[in-house]
Amino acid sequence: MLAALRLYGAHDTADWADGAVGLGRCLHRTLPEDRFDRQPLQTPDARLTLVADVRLDNREELVAALGQPTGSIANRCDAALPLDCLAHWGERAVDRLIGDFAFACWDAASQTLLLARDYRGNRPLYFHRGDGMIAVASMAKGLHALAEVPYAPDLQTSADFLVMMPAAETPSFWQGIERVPPGTILSVTRSAIASRRYWQPARPDRAAPPRDYVEGLRHHLDQAVAARLRGAGTTVGAHLSSGWDSASVAATAARLLADKGSVAAFTSVPEADHAPVEDRWRFADEGPLAAQTAALYRNIEHVLIRTGRTSPLEMLDRDFFLFEMPLLNRCNMPWIHGILGEAKRRSIGVMLTGEVGNMSVSYAGEEYLPQLLREGRLIELARVSRTLVRQGSIRWRGLASRLLLPFLPGGFEQAIRQRRWRLDHDPLAHTAINRAQYRDDALERRARARGMDIAYRPWHDGFAMRMFVLGRHDPGNYYAGYIAGWGVDQRDPTSDRRLVDYMLAAPMAEFVTGGRFRSLPRRALADRLPAAVLDEPRKGLQAADWHLGFDSARASMREELARIAACAPASSLLDIDRLMALERDWPSGGWGSEAVSESYRLAMLRGVSVGHFLRKASQSNG
What we know:
With 622 residues, the protein is α/β, with parallel strands linked by helices. Helix content is 38%, strand content 14%.
């Protein structure tokens, strides 16, 4: 098992065994304290034995709560603290851990195995229930090293993924392999597996006393970025788009590293001959706005990445090997690979991102209006609406649709939003799922059970919406794959649990203060981002030139579709006829239109991503 996982932790390997129980770990060093890592670790009485993949962001706080001297952690690895916490507080210790982690802890006294992951799932963890045994590994490779574990894909999980349904609790993309859900601790005994969801953030409290939420957001963002700079060295990498999230992270890192280090800020920019973007609320080239952010800081080096002529199919086999799952947006993989490759060339080991910032740092508060209507707070609704209209943030006609759409049946909502006034819009047109095998009504029931509206109506509860988005996808395999493939530890300060909890609990009114959506982040980020970035109403379109590499790969696409069609699991899940028809009707232009994007950028590329995974996982053809 350890040999199979070595590419995810090539710096050191160690193991421990006691009778029928064995634990081991492969280490990839990313922190100064990793030089002290001697896992597996044991308590002095040998009752608890632990292995962990962990970066803790509240080390000092934990040491103080444990009553230990502050200086005692200087020469201790991060895994030592969860062990102390478990010895002191039992399984409730996981509630106190802040950072990215996954661990397995054996309690010899109670004969119990504890498995846990951080609230976001930034570290992966899987297990297999066998005949009289249980096996655990950070990636499926470790479990597939065992003869007892089948090597075959899970079709239902792949189908859910294809229609962008939230992941089920424990099923994974592999038969016989389950995941430990993010924000969850499992207690495994000889007779049962008990599960407890430990992350329970507070809803916004309208009765909360007034406070300075601007300074609060700034404090939590500074704290989150500072924690993720540990071990980065003198140069940290950072994504830098034209938006607020990655820009706020890169800018904050530059401020914290002033006179001490630098930021290599990477921006993906399109080739000059990309197709025009036919969406007035989108623009293609994020380089100029990103450059304005970079220009504010002397210690930011702005690095432009151009990968538009790289085929999104080029890395299919390598991505399967590294990530062990299909990838949702293959059109983005060329520039992601490009940034990672340039970081590796520069020996940059830590990359900062802003992946969930729109649910934390830059949340807009648009759900506040229908929420006020649902709660019957009509006077407050009238006051807020009038201010938003006066400031030009919304028109009266737009206000009416925002209030009504969340409460209308899905067909009406789609008709109004697209201004077509027709009820025949297909909410699954962006997928290539086999509609005969996976019926719409069954998919809709399955989605509803997981809190998803397959028609994508706007939400009328901002807290519920953000919780849904935060839990929709499991990022652990991606982060593990970035380390295995490029040696880059990707860290997202916008997913810091303290920051997310703070922003989830902030009163909704804070986000529309002064008649502008995103009012709270707008005010808070004004001290670190240029006005041009904060005032830009449009959004940058990632990989606007995706079609250049895609168009040149038509022959490869045809070959891949033939292999997918010959794979029984893939042909049962996917609408092969539609995919083949799309290849025959290859566009000669219009790559920037919604129709072409929906059919090729979304349905075709995602279908091929899932189909390739299924054929490799089922070992049905080359």
